[in-house]
Design goal:
By secondary structure, this protein is an alpha/beta fold. It has 3 domains: 10-194, Galactose-binding domain-like (Jelly Rolls), CATH 2.60.120.260; 196-291, Immunoglobulin-like (Sandwich), CATH 2.60.40.10; 295-596, Glycosidases (TIM Barrel, Alpha-Beta Barrel). It binds beta-D-glucopyranuronic acid. Residues 179, 349, 418-419, 474, 511, 556, 573, 575 line the site of beta-D-glucopyranuronic acid.
């Protein structure tokens, strides 16, 4: 549950300066650091990625375990409370030690974990927290790293003998099989949360709209923790003004609402109610919205009306902090989405910080929530489904993601992953992704639509994409192929769209785009110019408008972002419609004019 403060709970933030150390070589002394952290550690800021905080190339190229330390004292006034240490995200694998003893280990860099420390510490007495985090990516991690060969967009031509030899000798390096920088470290907030001895440990909310949206109920389920029986929980639902509009008692129940105010995407009113649960001494409040979501024919319906997605794939990425949670930047991004008349984004390619999802609830931005499964693709000769040990872990990540985000009204669809191989090994792909599809439906109490985002490939061989609730396609006609030839690109799009039209499914474009270097201009549609990017969108969007079954367009990408260096990535990926510092490129003005004219509902 997201940490909150109220009369029963408080938060001690552990954000700020931590001691940090990267192992120097192969001395193997680091185990001792867990008990006795070296005094010569560097100072690094948390929450943020460690990679760009110091002028040391090793911080960017490092592969392996990194060590953080901090001394903490919980004030004595907390005596008698239960205390929990929570990490919102540590990339990628983490081991947390309290006074030299392992408290908890966690796999995966984008989801929260917490453990009770009440019995491990004494209030009023300093204790040490050591975080060991490992940024290794390989065939068993999500996102996936390569174990041999080159990174995504790498430039190592192994046919040159000297290059092949040098690669063998260079030792362990991280080879991302994905196109974003592998920013690592304590990327999100760290907090100690105090809770009463008996406390509320789980809350599930399912809005059900009835009677042609004229009435509604919220089904709730509550879990508690603690030895003593504190009776039945009480539940109160308040409207935006704070008036209680429904009450319930018990671990499960329904809150009925007459004349409900619906949660609507901006510029509609993203109306939020508050659910407050009390149990013994404890109290927990969560905001929730009333909205329905389902697919029907070629449409995705929000509140029973066909929604048209306008927006982007994004990244959590910024100067210096890397993938560190950045609430100031999130605020700016949401306002840029409003400015450009976008209504949605996908959390490509991993679940974003909880603060961002909460902001989207409030601001009426529709979200497709994506698991960090990117890079499940080994080329024509490697069947990743047989050789990458991922499935159980992938299930675990899905479970954690849906558990974290299940109550948010802004989330209307789960994405199981991005651009896996579905073409070289279509049967294996089908088996793998259909099982996860079933699991996501099972796990989600709101039973939202489920998708997987499919790669530019021979779509006729792909058997699984078409079985998802929504077909999501990433396509780069006019850029990676038919480069610069927008006439041919429009033709290719139409050939492919004819195919998808026949599937009778809701289809949306989850990525299309091209690099544009800020300030580079031209008069003849030259690739990489701002004019080319604007023209690219103008030409392709005109084709999309002719297709009634297409239910959305997400440009790639919202803003320029950092990647591994390589010959195709001059200072990162430049497909942003905004620059990395959030200045609009020419295409932003085109999209703003276009999207102003496209309503959220009934466009198609
Ligand atoms: C797609 C990926 C995305 C990349 C993009 C690109 O989904 O992560 O950044 O292409 O090449 O394949 O810019």
């Amino acid at each position: 549950m997201y940490p909150i403060e109220n009369k029963a709970r408080s938060i001690l933030s552990l954000d700020g300066m931590w001691d940090f150390k990267l192992p120097e070589g192969s001395e193997g002394r680091e185990d001792a650091w867990i008990r006795d952290f070296p005094k010569d550690g560097e100072s690094l800021y948390v929450p943020a990625s460690y990679n760009d905080q110091r002028e040391d190339g090793r911080y960017r190229s490092y592969r392996g375990r990194a060590y953080y330390h901090r001394s903490v004292t919980v004030p004595s006034i907390y005596e008698g409370q239960r205390l929990f240490l929570r990490f919102d995200a540590v990339a990628h694998d983490a081991w947390i030690y309290i006074n030299g003893e392992l408290l908890i280990a966690h796999r995966g860099g984008f989801l929260p974990f917490e453990a009770e420390i009440t019995e491990r510490i004494r209030t009023g007495t300093p204790f040490s927290v050591v975080v060991v985090c490992d940024n290794t990516i390989d065939h068993s991690t999500l996102p996936v790293g390569n174990e041999e060969g080159t990174a995504f967009f790498g430039s190592d031509n192994a046919q040159v003998p000297a290059v092949a030899e040098a690669k063998k000798l260079r030792g362990n390096v991280n080879l991302p099989n994905f196109d974003f920088f592998n920013y690592c470290g304590i990327n999100r907030h760290v907090r100690i949360i105090s809770k009463p001895v008996e406390f509320i440990s789980g809350l599930t909310l399912v809005p059900v709209l009835q009677d042609g949206l004229k009435s509604a109920e919220i089904q709730y389920r509550i879990q508690v923790d603690g030895k003593a029986d504190r009776g039945l929980p009480e539940v109160a639902l308040s409207d935006r003004e704070g008036n209680i509009v429904a009450r319930g008692t018990g671990f499960e129940g329904r809150l009925r609402i007459d004349r409900p105010r619906l949660w609507e995407p901006y510029p509609g009113d993203p109306y939020l109610y508050s659910v407050t649960v009390t149990y013994g001494e404890d109290e927990y409040t969560e905001q929730t919205g009333l909205r329905s979501v389902r697919t029907e024919g070629t449409r995705l319906l929000i509140n029973d009306r066909p929604f048209y997605f306008k927006g982007f794939g994004k990244h959590e990425d910024f100067y210096i902090g890397g993938r560190g949670v950045n609430e100031l930047l999130n605020t700016k991004d949401i306002n840029l989405l409003h400015w450009i008349h976008a209504n949605s984004f996908r959390t490509s390619h991993y679940p974003y910080a909880e603060e961002m999802i909460r902001l989207c609830d409030r601001e009426g931005i529709v979200v497709i929530d994506e698991a960090p499964a990117v890079g499940i693709n080994g080329g024509p000769s490697v069947n990743p489904y047989e050789t990458y040990p991922l499935k159980d872990y992938h299930k675990q990540v899905l479970k954690e993601m849906i558990e974290r985000d299940k109550n948010h009204p802004c989330i209307v669809m789960w994405s199981l992953g991005n651009e896996p191989d579905t073409e070289n090994f279509p049967e294996s792909a089908y088996e793998y992704w259909r099982e996860l599809y079933g699991l996501a439906h099972e796990l989600d109490p709101q039973d939202r639509p489920v998708t997987l985002v499919c790669c530019q490939n021979d779509y006729t061989r792909d058997k699984v994409t078409r079985t998802m609730d929504v077909v999501c396609i990433n396509r780069y006609y006019g850029w990676y192929n038919l480069s610069g030839d927008m006439k041919a690109a429009a033709l290719a799009w139409n050939i492919e769209l004819d195919f998808w039209e026949k599937q009778g499914k809701p289809v949306m474009v989850t990525e299309y785009g091209c690099d544009a270097i800020q300030g580079l201009h031209g008069t003849n549609g030259e690739m990489f110019t701002e004019e080319f990017q604007a023209e690219y969108y103008r030409i392709l969007d005109a084709e999309f408008d002719k297709r009634d079954f297409l239910m959305g367009e997400h440009c790639w990408a919202f803003a320029d972002f950092g990647t591994l260096q390589g010959v195709m990535r001059p200072d990162g990926n430049k497909k942003g419609v905004f620059t990395r510092e959030r200045r609009p490129k020419l295409s932003a003005h085109f999209l703003r004019e276009r999207w102003e004219k496209i309503p959220n509902f009934d466009y198609k």
